[in-house]
Amino acid sequence: MKRILADQFGPAYVVEINSLKPHFKGLLIIDNLALGTGKGGIRMASGLDAFELFRLARTMTWKNSLFDLPFGGAKAGIIIDPKKVSLKEKKEIIQAFARSLAPFVPKYYIAGPDIGTSEQEMKCFAETLGIWKGSTGKPANFCKGKSCGLPHEFGSTGFGVAKATEIAADILGFEIKGASVAVAGFGNVGSFAAKHLAEAGAKIVAVSEREGTIFNQNGLDLGPIAHLKEKGKPLTDYNRAKVLSRDKIYELPVDILIPAAVSDVINQKNYNKVKAKIIVEGSNIPIPEKIEDRLWKKGIMIVPDFVANGGGVISSFIEWSGRGPNVMFKIVEEKIKKATKQVLTESLRKKRNPRQIALVLAKNKVLKAMNK
Fold it and tell me: Which pLDDT band, with edges at 50, 70 and 90, does 152 fall under?
């Protein structure tokens, strides 16, 4: 297991929680507080470790900085498989986790949904502490005064990923209409990214989930696929596509590839098989930075995670500041398009990896705040 090595940016706090009743282990990494309270979701998964959460918290530091949000970077984790606990047990775990983090909320940390958690867990977190602003991504009908929740189930992250994809295609000089797209992960991010890109005229040729990849070079009909998902059935039940192994999606000959699942899915083992012209990182840290650089040198344009998938935290900011969904979608589109255009244009002009360009922009803002 890799160890967290502190640097000039953080982490400010590393909190380990060992709950005996209910029994679980939890972590909170607060990376940097120079721009404001640490903001980041609560991930619930069995294989989490402190180093992965630190990488995710650091990504949040850069993301909040890049989009000029008044937040620092953080990430929390509960090391348990959410599919192996009942709804009642899950609620008890969130309540216990919230109480353990009470000294940090909301001065040093504000929660949000992530893999394994949703709007209901965010409502539970806020209610347990009696702090409405203790979490974002709450249900739309959970209100305090005129302020209501803006659940990530509205699709803000996937919407932003689609807008980043449109800008990337435009900068590379090809039409999004008719472009072939593969979306790895058909959860909250991937499903909405696919939906909005299809509405823009793109051809979604492949999607994947844990059970496998479905692929049809003539395009998939997202309606029946979404219906399968709603009924809890595997996407591989869709009968108008080839069924491939889950990881085969990263090797398909497509214009655009959107990894929107877990971390490090494009890696040392498969990066040489990637054929996409553009990779838009819908999930956080889907590619190790060294591999990302090799792909860039191969001529693949990459929109980094903390540029492409900022829609969720921008939505969190809108909820935190008491505004509604119409304003949220407008601001997500404006901020994502502006950042993507700036990063990719400068990347091509300076012939440098887009991540390096985006990091310089984000780091400079954090350093300026730290030196005040």
Answer: confident
User: Which stretches does DSSP call E strand in 105-227?
Assistant: 109-110, 143-144, 147-148, 180-184, 203-209, 212-215
Is residue 5 in some structural domain?
Answer: no
Catalytic residue (choose from 39, 63, 75, 335): 75
pLDDT at residue 1 greater than cutoff 70: no
Query: Known catalytic residue: 75?
Result: yes
Write the CB contacts of 305 (distance below 8 Å, at least 6 apart in sequence). 59, 63, 281, 282, 283, 284, 285, 286
Q: Are residues 98 and 187 in the same domain?
A: no
Domain that holds residue 104: 13-60+72-149
CB neighbour list of residue 175: distance below 8 Å, 6 or more residues apart: 169, 201
Predicted pLDDT at 153: 75
Q: Which candidate, 5, 7, 75, places its Cα nearest to that of 45? A: 75
**The predicted structure's pLDDT at residue 188:** 87
> Do 252 and 269 fall within a single domain?
yes
Domain stops at, among 149, 170, 196: 149
pLDDT of residue 2: 79
Q: Are residues 257 and 226 both part of a single domain?
A: yes
Q: Extract the tokens encoding 223.
A: 């309606």
Tokens of 119: 């709007």
Token pair 């060992």: residue: 18
Q: Where residue 115 falls among pLDDT bands split at 50, 70, 90?
A: confident
pLDDT in tens, 31-67: 999 999 999 999 999 989 999 999 999 999 999 999 9
Classified as helix, coil or strand, 231 is coil
Q: Are residues 172 and 39 in the same domain?
A: no
Residues 202-238: tens digit of each pLDDT: 999 999 998 999 999 999 999 999 999 889 899 999 9
Asked if 279 and 303 touch (Cβ cutoff 8 Å), the reply is yes
Residue type at 266 in one-letter notation:
I
